[in-house]
């Protein structure tokens, strides 16, 4: 019997639509378990999922989407009326005051906004009126854009209206709140406030705050909680003088004033930083005596950050280390008198340091780092511009089984140090070698010879003049799954590197599939020819790109139009945020399909042909 003519066979039936295969209630239940990003990706699949996703957005308790920068027009439909919403986290780089009503939502317990430089102080007033139950508020760069208003009355309204605050992070210039009543207004803040961070506070405002704290504790029959609240456990203060403070102790922080920072000894996290952004200056009226007295009440400290204490020597820093048995995180910046003696007998203590930063501690040598390496639980180490640290320090560090992030910018290491790391046991995820001028092309093959190539996700090779395109070819051939690669200000890096990265394969996928950040600012060999390698579908996950500003502006603008979610920087600014290690959980999504959000946001939902036929 002859086989039937294939022409006469009926065509296969189209697959059933999603709503016919599964009840809508089941689909909605599944979608309700997804985070926002996954929910938006699912909505781009078909009309049924889009409808269910839209419904799910109206009862999500948390909306966290800080990896994609949205305009108000794109954000508004994603935040419908939702009485269940309690937590909102966004990157607000493209938002302005028009989005304030969308952000200040009744019932919120947490609001975290990054890069909100286009939003004025109106946000603080709206939060005070709309969000009385707010527990956590974190704002970065609020009203930093020129011409935006923010006044003392905005701060007062916030502290009066949000009486349940437990964490307050104001990472911006607080000089806009300068007012004779600045120190008094804090008496109306929540008594349950346990974490307070101020991005920049002028010295005179800080001294007024300290003076108010002393006065309130000395006042007889005082019924209001002291300015430094009884629940406060985390305090961060930063100033950045534009001129050297006067020699009179009344105008600068002193040993006596330092004792008012933690009078009850309840702080667990303390950060006091004098920035040198504008001039080289320090806390000249604080010395070892002030630190010794303060350390007597610091037994509960778990982390401490001291920046600009130029008169403090090993004696003061050792007092901190030996007085805080629970200390896990230590950061000292511009410790001009800190030497190897600080860690001389660290092995005799019970300390278990996990995060250490010693930036610009120029007297520190390999010997001190070798002593520090006795902390086998060390997870993060920053030695930026420790100009006496070399290869032997790296050899000691290469034996640390938990070291995930290492910053060696400006040190005097050579290729030998990279060989130590390549043969070591460190599961490095982030390595920064910026400005290590003694390194050559041979350093990368040595580094990636061992297991580091499997764990490394962020690499900074900026300002190393001898590096060429050959270095990038090694990275591509080893298929190192980099998420961030910084190559700025390398004169010999050019178009060949971009082409190689664009065609890099990882787990069988091409098109530079793992990179999310690529910094090529002021790389001497980059020309207009490189622009074509940034077009879709190449670099599908790329979110940050740095190029030199002299490239053809028309082509740059055309790239921005075709990839609206790509943040392009041409002015030399640093890209992204510091890489965050999640201890093995690098990406929540195995397949990063952020570009798939674009059709849903910009062109409507993509619907498969099979579903269209079925619906018709």
Automatic annotation (TrEMBL):
The organism's place on the tree of life at top rank: Eukaryota
Stretches for region Disordered: 581-616
Domain F-box/LRR-repeat protein 15-like leucin rich repeat span(s) in chain numbering: 71-185, 231-549
Pfam family, one: DUF7885
Biased composition (Acidic residues): 606-616
TM region(s), chain numbering: none
Biased composition (Basic and acidic residues): 582-591
InterPro entries, A to Z: FBXL15_LRR, Leu-rich_rpt_Cys-con_subtyp, LRR_dom_sf
PANTHER family, sorted: F-BOX_LRR-REPEAT PROTEIN 10, PARTNER OF PAIRED, ISOFORM B-RELATED
Protein name: F-box/LRR-repeat protein 15-like leucin rich repeat domain-containing protein
């Amino acid at each position: 019997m002859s086989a039937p003519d294939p022409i006469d066979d009926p065509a296969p039936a189209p697959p059933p639509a999603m709503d016919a295969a599964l009840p809508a209630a089941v689909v909605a239940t599944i979608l309700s378990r997804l985070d926002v990003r996954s929910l938006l990706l699912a909505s781009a699949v078909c009309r049924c999922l889009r409808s269910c996703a839209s419904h799910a957005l109206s009862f999500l308790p948390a909306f966290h989407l800080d990896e994609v920068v949205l305009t108000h027009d794109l954000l508004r439909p994603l935040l419908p009326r939702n009485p269940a919403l309690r937590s909102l986290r966004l990157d607000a780089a493209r938002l302005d005051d028009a989005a304030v009503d969308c952000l200040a939502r009744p019932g919120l317990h947490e609001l975290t906004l990054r890069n909100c430089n286009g939003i004025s102080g109106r946000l603080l007033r709206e939060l005070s009126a709309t969000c009385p139950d707010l527990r956590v508020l974190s704002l970065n760069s609020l009203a930093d854009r020129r011409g935006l208003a923010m006044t003392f009355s905005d701060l007062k309204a916030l502290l009066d209206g949000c009486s349940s605050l437990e964490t307050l992070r104001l990472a911006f210039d607080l000089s806009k709140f300068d007012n004779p009543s600045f120190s008094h207004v804090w008496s109306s803040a929540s008594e349950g406030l346990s974490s307070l961070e101020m991005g920049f506070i002028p010295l005179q405002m800080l001294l007024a705050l300290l003076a108010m704290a002393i006065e309130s504790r000395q006042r007889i029959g005082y019924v209001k909680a002291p300015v430094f609240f009884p629940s406060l456990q985390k305090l961060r203060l930063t100033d950045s003088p534009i001129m050297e403070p006067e020699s009179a102790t009344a105008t600068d922080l002193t040993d006596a004033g330092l004792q008012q920072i933690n009078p009850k000894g309840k702080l667990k996290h303390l950060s006091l930083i004098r920035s040198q952004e504008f001039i080289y200056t320090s806390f000249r009226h604080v010395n070892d005596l002030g630190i010794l007295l303060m350390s007597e009440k610091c037994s509960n400290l778990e982390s401490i950050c001291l920046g600009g204490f130029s008169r403090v020597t090993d004696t003061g820093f050792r007092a901190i280390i030996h007085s805080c048995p629970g200390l896990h995180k230590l950061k000292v910046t511009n410790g001009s008198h800190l030497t190897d003696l600080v860690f001389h007998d660290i092995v005799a203590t019970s300390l278990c340091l996990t995060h250490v930063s010693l930036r610009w501690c120029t007297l520190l040598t390999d010997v001190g780092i070798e002593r520090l390496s006795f902390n086998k639980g060390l997870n993060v180490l920053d030695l930026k511009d420790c100009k006496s640290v070399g290869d032997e320090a790296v050899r000691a560090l290469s034996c640390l089984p938990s070291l995930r992030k290492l910053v060696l910018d400006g040190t005097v290491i050579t290729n030998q140090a990279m060989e130590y790391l390549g043969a070591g046991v460190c599961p490095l995820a982030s390595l920064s070698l910026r400005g290590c001028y003694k390194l050559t092309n041979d350093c990368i093959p040595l580094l990636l010879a061992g297991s580091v190539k499997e764990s490394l996700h962020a690499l900074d090779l900026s300002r190393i003049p001898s590096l060429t395109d050959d270095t990038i070819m090694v990275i591509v051939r080893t298929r190192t799954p980099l998420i961030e690669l910084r190559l700025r200000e390398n004169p010999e890096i050019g178009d060949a590197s971009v082409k190689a990265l664009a065609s890099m394969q990882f787990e069988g996928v091409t098109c530079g599939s793992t990179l999310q950040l690529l910094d090529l600012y002021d790389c001497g060999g980059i020309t207009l020819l490189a622009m074509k390698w940034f077009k879709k579908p190449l670099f599908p996950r790329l979110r940050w790109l740095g190029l030199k500003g002299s490239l053809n502006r028309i082509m740059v603008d055309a790239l921005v139009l075709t990839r609206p979610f790509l943040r392009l920087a041409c002015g030399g600014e640093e890209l992204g945020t510091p890489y965050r290690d999640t201890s093995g959980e690098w990406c929540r999504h195995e397949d990063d399909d952020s570009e798939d959000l674009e059709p849903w946001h910009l062109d409507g939902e993509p619907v498969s042909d099979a579903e269209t036929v079925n619906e018709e």
